[in-house]
């Protein structure tokens, strides 16, 4: 239990004393994971909408694929991105491996199936005649889709939270494509793993607590947004 | 603005759901599409305002209309009120918002329509808390608020109880009078057509069988199916009556005669075997096998005859309609 | 949000994605293009804004090494100095020895710092690697109760292990497939012993926990010297210095034979630097001089007792 207590003290100390490394790692974590989440939303919400609303062959198969993708181990995505970005790989010329960009790509890859599947599920909850009714009121296709997304905005917020939660807490892909380079690609999860293997358990727990605080802060913000919404009912 | 169509067809899986050679609704006119379930009424409505895939031409003021033009002109009310997760006022304003009107302005313009449909007091409530009738009133207010030049109503009253429906019909009629729109009302209820529409079209199997002034269409069925649709469910074929055309009558107009009662004047009298007596609450319906199909009589008279016994029915000639050749 | 600002300035310098993102934005009509452009821009945005700006473009090499060099913190000391001295920035990947060698073989790394001598020799014989030079070593020690009931002092390491087994004196293993555990199994193998029975316990935990269990039960255990020194358990170092207990690190330069993008000049710069006097001095002084022994220029065969 000493370790937990020390970890808590260490976490508070690191944050309060403005430990530059910790803040840099925290900043990078937020930057990478939030960017990856936004990208996953940009790609995944339209795809999820197509899967939820489209009427075409293979729709169910694609939905099943997306649902399976939700359980995709981050390490597998990390490995895939790594091989793609290898010097000898198809995108090797870009020189992106072991950069935050690579981490964003991998994490977006992890979050996108989650966003697709959960978006489809969220839109399924909306009345099936919703789009028809919006068009029947004179909405253009784009406006009708916008109204649909607005209608589903609470579940869609949850989708974003799920995506962010998945990527901010994963370590496999971040380690593999980022390389855990000090000051460059070290994020809270990989830093915690490193601290653990260095035997600095208190520091590791401190990083873990910072991670927890971030996840909590983000969720709190979103939950408050949701409540503001429901309060105006 | 008038709306119409030429050669409008909707097919699905190789089956023709709707095929309408021509339908025209004049500016300011209300036309009812009356038909049984599955006749393609909703499909016709959706095709006419390009809410579903179709072939053929839709005309606005006599000119072929694009989907965009239709979006500008039309507002639709569906059978089930689909409301947004928002207040009643914001729902009423939604149509205007979808057309690019700013929020405050949209609310300001929507409010009188909530009043017109008797739901102004619900304005701050959340849409989820409304009853079915209230929700449909909001949906209608939402459609009227955009000041559509064409209004299409897809069985807007079907989910409502009788009292609610009567009140809403009256409110809607008044509201439509404030608005000079051409209105298409899809319904399976003659009373709704009667209350709202100047003209009525009968749709059977995706085709318009009959169209004309509502009062005459409702009273003059052109063929046996239309007759059934309009309530003339007692069909008396030539073999029974000796006439050269099919005669039809409403069961309410078929009177059972006592054994000793003489034939009334100016009436068609026919015999059959009573098959069963169906209580309708107050009145009863007698199903009578004439040997040439089933005839029905709805009556409040005391019936002593038991099923299986012969019975005579009389219909005044004024209540008989000739149907087909 | 400053990183978005930096993005703009960095993108302006001609990052690879720039042309694509620009094109997509200009053709612009389909929504999907805009989304793709936004995605590319965002990915880049997150990628930029680190302190990469300090290093001249292109002078960046990839070092594949073992977790021990990173976990000990040695690299954190060495690499910034190397960058200052040569201008080469280093991306160091701390992986297993096997993976490090594989990365070299595929040309995904420019230089290797590893400690698997047999595998290294075989790898160098394949021909894609360049010079291989001795850098340093650290070691494992056999720790146990001061009384040394099995009589392991001053024995060859393998013999010491055999004695522990034959006397049943008690041994605590990490049993976690770590490098230490692997070395322990290797020693048992060389001693011809299959450890099992009441005297042999496996914790399945880290070195610290294993040391605690060993000291509480007055048993022997194999530990790396660094952890022994930091944990200061009430156990004595009874056996050390045998070559079988050493981790010998070599630096291996990769060549273009391994891959087109390998940078032999960077590899040579790193290898030359780490066997140089300055780096060797830093290695010797690291961790109060007790963790690593600089060995550059020595005869490998002469290492150990």
UniProtKB/TrEMBL annotation, chain A:
<feature type="transmembrane region" description="Helical">
    <location>
        <begin position="32"/>
        <end position="54"/>
    </location>
</feature>
<keyword id="KW-0472">Membrane</keyword>
<feature type="transmembrane region" description="Helical">
    <location>
        <begin position="201"/>
        <end position="225"/>
    </location>
</feature>
<dbReference type="InterPro" id="IPR000515">
    <property type="entry name" value="MetI-like"/>
</dbReference>
<keyword id="KW-0813">Transport</keyword>
<feature type="domain" description="ABC transmembrane type-1">
    <location>
        <begin position="26"/>
        <end position="222"/>
    </location>
</feature>
<dbReference type="InterPro" id="IPR035906">
    <property type="entry name" value="MetI-like_sf"/>
</dbReference>
<feature type="transmembrane region" description="Helical">
    <location>
        <begin position="61"/>
        <end position="86"/>
    </location>
</feature>
<protein>
    <submittedName>
        <fullName>Binding-protein-dependent transport systems inner membrane component</fullName>
    </submittedName>
</protein>
<feature type="transmembrane region" description="Helical">
    <location>
        <begin position="98"/>
        <end position="123"/>
    </location>
</feature>
<dbReference type="InterPro" id="IPR049783">
    <property type="entry name" value="ABC_perm_TupB-like"/>
</dbReference>
<comment type="similarity">
    <text>Belongs to the binding-protein-dependent transport system permease family.</text>
</comment>
<dbReference type="Pfam" id="PF00528">
    <property type="entry name" value="BPD_transp_1"/>
</dbReference>
<keyword id="KW-0812">Transmembrane</keyword>
<keyword id="KW-1133">Transmembrane helix</keyword>
<feature type="transmembrane region" description="Helical">
    <location>
        <begin position="144"/>
        <end position="168"/>
    </location>
</feature>
UniProtKB/TrEMBL annotation, chain B:
<dbReference type="Pfam" id="PF00005">
    <property type="entry name" value="ABC_tran"/>
</dbReference>
<keyword id="KW-0067">ATP-binding</keyword>
<dbReference type="InterPro" id="IPR027417">
    <property type="entry name" value="P-loop_NTPase"/>
</dbReference>
<dbReference type="InterPro" id="IPR003593">
    <property type="entry name" value="AAA+_ATPase"/>
</dbReference>
<feature type="domain" description="ABC transporter">
    <location>
        <begin position="3"/>
        <end position="230"/>
    </location>
</feature>
<dbReference type="InterPro" id="IPR050093">
    <property type="entry name" value="ABC_SmlMolc_Importer"/>
</dbReference>
<keyword id="KW-0547">Nucleotide-binding</keyword>
<dbReference type="InterPro" id="IPR003439">
    <property type="entry name" value="ABC_transporter-like_ATP-bd"/>
</dbReference>
<protein>
    <submittedName>
        <fullName>ABC-type hemin transport system ATPase component</fullName>
    </submittedName>
</protein>
<keyword id="KW-0813">Transport</keyword>
<dbReference type="InterPro" id="IPR017871">
    <property type="entry name" value="ABC_transporter-like_CS"/>
</dbReference>
<dbReference type="InterPro" id="IPR008995">
    <property type="entry name" value="Mo/tungstate-bd_C_term_dom"/>
</dbReference>
